[in-house]
Amino acid sequence: MRDSGAINFKPKNGSKPFGREKKEQQTVDLARLPGKIGSAVDFLREHVKSFNGRVSTKGNQIQVEGLKHKEVKLLLHKFLRHNGLDDHRVRSQSGILEIVPPHLATHPKQGAATTPPPAAATMPYL
Protein backbone atom coordinates (compact mmCIF):
# COMPACT_ATOMS: atom_id res chain seq x y z
CA MET A 1 0.00 0.00 0.00
CA ARG A 2 1.34 3.36 -1.05
CA ASP A 3 0.72 6.42 1.15
CA SER A 4 1.26 9.68 -0.70
CA GLY A 5 0.43 11.80 2.31
CA ALA A 6 -2.61 13.37 0.59
CA ILE A 7 -5.77 13.78 2.60
CA ASN A 8 -9.10 13.02 0.99
CA PHE A 9 -11.68 15.62 2.02
CA LYS A 10 -14.55 14.20 -0.03
CA PRO A 11 -17.41 12.86 2.10
CA LYS A 12 -18.40 9.24 1.74
CA ASN A 13 -21.47 8.50 -0.35
CA GLY A 14 -23.68 7.64 2.63
CA SER A 15 -22.59 10.48 4.91
CA LYS A 16 -24.63 13.60 5.49
CA PRO A 17 -23.19 17.13 5.34
CA PHE A 18 -22.38 18.91 8.58
CA GLY A 19 -24.77 21.54 9.93
CA ARG A 20 -27.95 22.69 8.26
CA GLU A 21 -28.43 21.98 4.61
CA LYS A 22 -28.54 25.20 2.58
CA LYS A 23 -31.83 25.62 0.75
CA GLU A 24 -32.01 27.35 -2.58
CA GLN A 25 -33.46 30.85 -2.57
CA GLN A 26 -35.02 32.43 -5.65
CA THR A 27 -35.92 36.09 -6.14
CA VAL A 28 -38.97 37.13 -8.15
CA ASP A 29 -39.28 40.78 -9.23
CA LEU A 30 -42.87 41.96 -9.72
CA ALA A 31 -42.17 45.65 -10.36
CA ARG A 32 -43.79 45.47 -13.81
CA LEU A 33 -46.93 43.79 -12.47
CA PRO A 34 -48.15 46.37 -9.93
CA GLY A 35 -51.79 45.33 -9.45
CA LYS A 36 -51.18 41.62 -8.99
CA ILE A 37 -48.47 41.44 -6.33
CA GLY A 38 -50.81 40.31 -3.55
CA SER A 39 -52.44 37.60 -5.63
CA ALA A 40 -49.01 36.39 -6.84
CA VAL A 41 -47.78 36.06 -3.25
CA ASP A 42 -50.93 34.14 -2.24
CA PHE A 43 -50.63 31.85 -5.27
CA LEU A 44 -46.96 31.09 -4.60
CA ARG A 45 -47.55 30.53 -0.87
CA GLU A 46 -50.31 28.03 -1.63
CA HIS A 47 -48.22 26.09 -4.15
CA VAL A 48 -44.88 26.27 -2.30
CA LYS A 49 -46.44 24.63 0.78
CA SER A 50 -46.53 21.28 -1.04
CA PHE A 51 -42.74 21.50 -1.56
CA ASN A 52 -42.08 22.46 2.10
CA GLY A 53 -40.76 25.84 1.00
CA ARG A 54 -41.20 29.39 2.28
CA VAL A 55 -42.29 32.64 0.66
CA SER A 56 -41.43 36.12 1.95
CA THR A 57 -41.92 39.56 0.43
CA LYS A 58 -39.85 42.75 0.31
CA GLY A 59 -41.63 45.51 -1.55
CA ASN A 60 -41.95 44.43 -5.19
CA GLN A 61 -39.78 41.34 -4.69
CA ILE A 62 -40.72 37.87 -3.51
CA GLN A 63 -38.15 35.51 -1.98
CA VAL A 64 -38.96 31.81 -2.52
CA GLU A 65 -36.92 29.36 -0.48
CA GLY A 66 -36.74 25.61 -0.95
CA LEU A 67 -37.56 25.39 -4.67
CA LYS A 68 -35.31 25.24 -7.69
CA HIS A 69 -35.14 28.09 -10.19
CA LYS A 70 -37.02 26.14 -12.89
CA GLU A 71 -39.80 25.13 -10.46
CA VAL A 72 -40.44 28.75 -9.46
CA LYS A 73 -40.46 29.79 -13.12
CA LEU A 74 -43.07 27.12 -13.94
CA LEU A 75 -45.21 28.25 -10.99
CA LEU A 76 -45.04 31.84 -12.25
CA HIS A 77 -46.16 30.69 -15.71
CA LYS A 78 -49.05 28.88 -14.04
CA PHE A 79 -49.96 32.04 -12.10
CA LEU A 80 -50.00 34.11 -15.30
CA ARG A 81 -52.26 31.63 -17.11
CA HIS A 82 -54.68 31.39 -14.17
CA ASN A 83 -55.02 35.18 -14.11
CA GLY A 84 -55.52 35.55 -17.86
CA LEU A 85 -52.15 37.21 -18.44
CA ASP A 86 -51.23 34.95 -21.36
CA ASP A 87 -49.35 37.72 -23.14
CA HIS A 88 -46.90 38.25 -20.23
CA ARG A 89 -43.59 36.40 -20.03
CA VAL A 90 -41.33 35.17 -17.24
CA ARG A 91 -37.75 36.26 -17.83
CA SER A 92 -34.71 35.07 -15.92
CA GLN A 93 -31.93 37.61 -15.80
CA SER A 94 -28.90 37.30 -13.51
CA GLY A 95 -30.70 34.69 -11.42
CA ILE A 96 -33.71 36.95 -10.77
CA LEU A 97 -37.06 35.94 -12.20
CA GLU A 98 -39.06 38.83 -13.60
CA ILE A 99 -42.57 39.02 -15.03
CA VAL A 100 -42.51 41.13 -18.19
CA PRO A 101 -45.57 42.61 -19.94
CA PRO A 102 -45.93 42.19 -23.69
CA HIS A 103 -43.49 44.15 -25.81
CA LEU A 104 -45.31 46.54 -28.09
CA ALA A 105 -43.01 47.55 -30.92
CA THR A 106 -43.89 50.84 -32.55
CA HIS A 107 -42.68 51.36 -36.06
CA PRO A 108 -42.11 54.89 -37.33
CA LYS A 109 -44.70 55.84 -39.92
CA GLN A 110 -43.57 57.09 -43.27
CA GLY A 111 -44.31 60.78 -43.30
CA ALA A 112 -45.86 62.74 -46.14
CA ALA A 113 -42.64 64.75 -46.47
CA THR A 114 -40.83 61.93 -48.26
CA THR A 115 -40.98 61.77 -52.03
CA PRO A 116 -42.35 58.70 -53.83
CA PRO A 117 -39.92 56.60 -55.89
CA PRO A 118 -39.51 57.52 -59.56
CA ALA A 119 -41.84 55.83 -62.04
CA ALA A 120 -39.01 53.90 -63.67
CA ALA A 121 -38.23 52.19 -60.36
CA THR A 122 -41.79 50.93 -59.96
CA MET A 123 -42.39 49.84 -63.58
CA PRO A 124 -42.04 46.14 -64.32
CA TYR A 125 -39.42 45.08 -66.82
CA LEU A 126 -41.15 44.00 -70.04
Descriptive account of the structure:
The chain is an alpha+beta fold and 126 residues long. The protein has a domain at 25-100: Gyrase A, domain 2. The protein is 24% helix and 20% strand. It is built from three helices and five strands. A hairpin with a 2-residue loop joins strand 2 and strand 3 (61-65). The longest helix has 14 residues, at 69-82. It is elongated and about 85 Å long. The protein starts with 24 loop residues before the first strand and ends with a helix. The mean pLDDT is 83.
CATH class of the domain at 25-100: Alpha Beta
Uncertain residue segments: none
Major sheet details: 5 strands, mixed
* Distance N to C terminus: 92 Å
Following the backbone from N to C, one meets helices and strands in this order, namely EHEEHEEH
Spatial strand arrangement across the major sheet: 2-3-1-5-4
User: What kind of assembly state do the chains in view correspond to?
Assistant: single chain
Strand content: 15-25%
Averaged pLDDT, please? 83
Structural class: alpha+beta
Q: Which CATH architecture of the domain at 25-100 is right?
A: 2-Layer Sandwich
CATH topology-level name of the domain at 25-100: Gyrase A, domain 2
Radius of gyration: 27 Å
Shape: elongated
The residue fraction in helices comes out at 10-25%
Give the strand tally. 5
Treating each run of at least 4 consecutive H or I residues as one helix, how many helices?
A: 3
